[in-house]
Here is the input.
Amino acid sequence: MLRYRFGSILLAAAALLCRAGDDAQQRLAGRAFSATPLLADLEELCDRIGGRPTGSPECERAIEWAAAKFKAAGVDTVALESFPVPQAWAAETAEAECLAPEKFPLRIAAAPFSASTGAALEAPLVDAGDGSPQAIAALGDRARGAIALVTSREMKTLDDLFDEYFRSGPMLAAARLAAQGAVRVRLRLVNRTGGPFESRNVVAEIRGRERPEEVVLLGAHLDSWELGTGAEDNGANAAMVIDAARAIHELQRKPRRTIRFVLFTGEEQGMWGSAGYVLRHASEMDRHVAAVVFDMGSGRTSGFFLNGREDLRQPLAQALAGLSGLDAAQNPPDAIDGTDNFDFLLSGVPNLVANQEAAPYLPDYHAESDTLDRVNARELKANAALASALVWWLAESPERFGRRLSRAEVEKLLADTKLDVQMRAFGQWDDWQSRRRGASR
Ligand SMILES: [Zn+2]
Here is the structure.
């Protein structure tokens, strides 16, 4: 699929937008399809800063870059808010070579949080299928002292992605070699691991004119892994959040409530930036009217995950009614644990995750191929229209978007949506039970 077409974005925005709705919504949506700095910003982030794992010098540069962009956008305040990340990990060297039956180099990458090998290991390669405990057990003695080749399926849907999350625990390393017969491999991994450290979220704010204490949050994560340049995951949406701030400032009209534009870091390691934000702002959670998160690249948005909140369906339909030309009215009930809405969900705050087309995103997911050329500029602009017009509505509407759930209600939501099962599998359940995660009341 041909993507990233700068030249062909002259869309008649007016034709896309069928109903009058809020005049500011129409202006925001129209602006998003005009010549905006969105793609140039994304190019800077990807090509001049590049891959930016949290804790890396590149991530620090990205944080400073984003703060400067928000300031230039004309927002009222920009703050860098620190938060703890429990464990440091960075890949340094990953080398592998096939020694027999033929000698040739292998291209590999270290899986996040994998250990170092020390000196190079030389061992037979065994085919461990999908890497499940059953597949390892089936190898019997052959697994002893061997390097296991684990094959993963190409991911096509969000369900495939969550399958992969469930499976990734026992996997250590994979190479792209089909193991047939007696294959010997040399493997050397050097990874830096360390204890807790601090990173920072970038928090920009346009203050509300009438209820400045009430907050509508638009968020995306700024960090990435080091393979590729984090264009789809999630530079596209980080640049989009900056552009939404710019767009709303350009309206020269203050919204009724405050809008916070937040670029989280520490997402890839476990959503630590949004967890840190929620704990730091725990006393304000009652006044967080909504948190809207984008984290699936430049895929077309068909609606928003309601995260188990049927009570949000009608007000969301109303918020999107003036944007029917963007065709984003399918709002699935599913609850998402895997991006920065999660700690808002645990805190009972109305939270939405953009339901974006997964097929173009997943082949490049956390891969070397996640670079600027993968970005679909047309859809990214449509998402910018949707995001800016939606958060404007949520901040401007006289009625509050949704209420905050109590801890007991969140507990029920977790059971009803089966999110509790997933949280146990991801090792998050204890943090919820012990109230280390989610600002509860
Ligand atoms: Zn992401």
In short: Residues 221, 233-234, 267, 295 surround zinc ion (CB under 6 Å).
